[in-house]
Write a structure and sequence with these properties.
mainly alpha, two-stranded antiparallel sheet, 2 helices, rod-shaped, membrane, transmembrane helix
Amino acid sequence: MILKIVLLFLIGMGVLAWFGKMHWLGGKRLRQRKCPKCGRYQIGKGRCNCKEMR
């Protein structure tokens, strides 16, 4: 009984992961921007604070 529950759980998680990778269902890949000066990833639309850190 426990084996059936674990197997169903793993199959369900696999199906969810498969749907998450499908881009035609609305999942977009976000293009990550990097700061040209320091190379850090930028989060949001603001500018990098690498000048303030020095």
